[in-house]
């Protein structure tokens, strides 16, 4: 079968070698004679997997012992609630930057826990940029932001400089490049873009915040519950954690610096073509363009029916997952860590052929 | 490699044919050229999986259109909170039967949401039986119970007859035999015993209760959120749902009636040997013995060192997962749906050999 160029926005492409190992583990895990799917999460074999996954996160991100790493469930959608609960302090008030659909959902859950204020938003411009000038008062317990916006193709290229604890939903760009993690009090991320399959959610929390919320938190939403039990308070999502561990091994082997270089090369190649090609235009402000998700549409004045023509040409070239989100339209190319430069080149080739055919 | 007899308490044995199919799906899902782990949950291929999984639950359990089936995350531990939130009515009070560790945790979360009263408990007898005589007043919104207790090896063999909505954590005995599901308002169950791998949690809810709680519920804990989006409000645990669907196909093919017959045959074989063998005694009241988890210990007066001797003999016979939970000690044989009768016979053979050697 011809190779598929997988531009899916998530769940999304993972390293091919991971699929081989994961497939084998479903049949027989490490020569135990048992499938990983039928093994106790308390077995020494799986405890070793969980420990290695957590250790790899610490190593890859240079996390000091001031941080706790956890693998939980529920995705970022439950993380909105968990972050608001666990970060609540004396002010019972959080600040949020609204840069898209997910950031807005985080704000909504923040309001469920306490007061939550929107200190900046790019909604009036359909979230086509990252707000720059905003003020975060000292009367809030934390600032929450979403580092990358899959739907709108924007990304924070600098960590907000504030004097309050910083919380970030990093679901769609975690491990995409080097990062000064010491600036964060809490990072959370659904696994299903750069880190693994759907079903596991990573939490990186400063130990000093764990158990120090002013809120009365239900057991499963309290990070202290999970930190105290090393992510084994209840049965973890065994297979999703295992595959995440395999991906983390690949990230470590490749190196975060190199991954950042490759992601920039892929983004430069694609955005270069979007800007050069007379048939397309990008939708996000240039300085805020995401290196993970490139959103583009047909250039002004072109017949809308060409959208289907282009998607058909992509399909013929084995390029999948390119249809844009309904909130932006057009096209979206998601270029997560495991996507090879070759796949971006294949897309660029189709864009050029499309221009020659229809310009 | 010799076959392992997998008596693990959970995650636990699943049908062998499921491992083959699941392993293949990790490499190439249904000839798409993509791994199931890298496919969008919104792809038509995965939407078909989710739809089939939900439909199979309805079919296997003869559920009327009055019920909604959902696959979520978080395990029963999050289900404790979700059930209490969604069942809360005008009384803001739930009734709980405490039959073990998990039932007690459900009660604890119930108290977080509203008032929660314990109408019966077998704790003074270390949960060795199911309480029979209890009164559930009409001033509660629901009765919650745990149908099977993995740690203590007890099981409700009759559904409680009450005049209030009935909620059940069925994590460790769902689909173990035929069941009159029309008696329930809400059933929830972590997948990782009879239904699939860890990471998916099943909810079967009467539609009339969904969205009618008196509580103000956070988005992700509100069953209405998930019912309205057919379990696709956020990214579901794709692989765990897929494997659950494969197991549900196997359950349908085998038939719930036949599964119940086989489970009873396995339990009869093992309990018969526990009662006959002079080296062992069961820990649970006979009438409440679980057909899923059989707990037994060395008979009175025997040297405790024989525990290790017996476990060593089990290991030699490729019997795994037999060590009892620390709260009961001794031995626990979990005989979930996919465990063959042959495995129980292998265990019984070791018990007989143990008696001959050490009696």
Characterise this structure.
- 2 copies of one chain form a homodimer.
- In chain A, the strands form 4 sheets. In chain A, strands 2-10-9-8-5-3-4 form a 7-stranded mixed sheet, with helices on both faces.
- Chain A is globular, with a radius of gyration of 21 Å.
- The first copy, chain A, has 9 helices and 14 strands.
- In chain A, helix 7 runs parallel beside helix 9.
- Chain A has 2 domains: 16-254, Aspartate Aminotransferase, domain 2 (3-Layer(aba) Sandwich), CATH 3.40.640.10; 256-358, Aspartate Aminotransferase, domain 1.
- With 359 residues, chain A is of the alpha/beta class.
- The model of chain A has no long low-confidence stretch (mean pLDDT 97).
- Chain A has helices at residues 16-27, 44-60, 75-87, 101-113, 223-228, 238-254, 256-276, 306-316, 341-358; strands at residues 5-6, 67-72, 93-98, 115-121, 142-146, 148-149, 154-155, 166-169, 186-190, 201-206, 280-282, 293-298, 319-320, 331-334.
- In chain A, a hairpin with a 4-residue loop joins strand 6 (148-149) and strand 7 (154-155).
- Chains A and B meet through helix 1, helix 3, helix 4 and helix 6 of A and helix 1, helix 3, helix 4 and helix 6 of B.
